[in-house]
Amino acid sequence: MVLFVLRRLQIASPEILKSTIAGVKVHGAVRVKQVQITVPYEKTEAVIDFLLDSLNIKNVMKFNADNAIVLQFRIPDDSVNETIEGLKSRGVGVEYGFVDILDLKASLPRETEEKTSDTKIQRDATLAVEEIYENVKKQSSLSFDYIAFIVLAAIMAGIGLIQNNVTVIVASMLLSPLMGPMLGIAFGYVIRNKSLLVKGTKNEVIGIALSLSVGVILAVIMPLLEPTMLATITANVEGGVITEITRRAGFQALDVGVAIFSGAAVAVSVTKGDMSSLVGVAISAA
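Request: output the structure for the sequence above.
Response:
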């Protein structure tokens, strides 16, 4: 049974119900998310009052489950953080109950663009902290795929350096998953989450150690397969010839600028939930 909750779950007339249903379309022109809250029976009234009175959320739907109450409502993307933090301050999702944030891929009726006289450039709504946390946590986890990609990327990078082939080196950067634990370290520090910070640091160290190990193995094996390779690399270094190896042997002040702007690009991409921009960051790092 579905009830539209209006001020302590009392609907006075069909006219109010009609206006409430129409109110669902208020956010038709903006991106919205659906929030689902599962709370015990005894906490339901307090949570609903908080949603209606403090957060000013309309069109809350109530579902009766076996041993709990499920509340659902839609909010604009830019209101997700405020709503979640407000619920957490009341203990929802922390001391009791569950809070789920659902992406709406499509809705009917379709969104209609509103024409405005003033053109404003503003940033798209960011993800909630909890959404970013789940994405970053997944990327910073240690798994078979993580280890496999580290080894394969290190082999490709080593071969690219030996062949003086920048294309192969860039490809190895795109394949390498080392960015994931880096995000875990940075995000864990920002939100003061020690477990995520330690997890990201540990997995980053493991990834770097694997990469160095693969590099050492390649350095031992490749001269046996290509006897003239070592002499060629030594001559290039001593002669000051610019190759992919000698180019990465030094440090320039501009490298710091690349790191700063790349980090800013990563931050924008992660908070927006669009990871496609990380490809450009990997290329710039290469």
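The radius of gyration is 27 Å.
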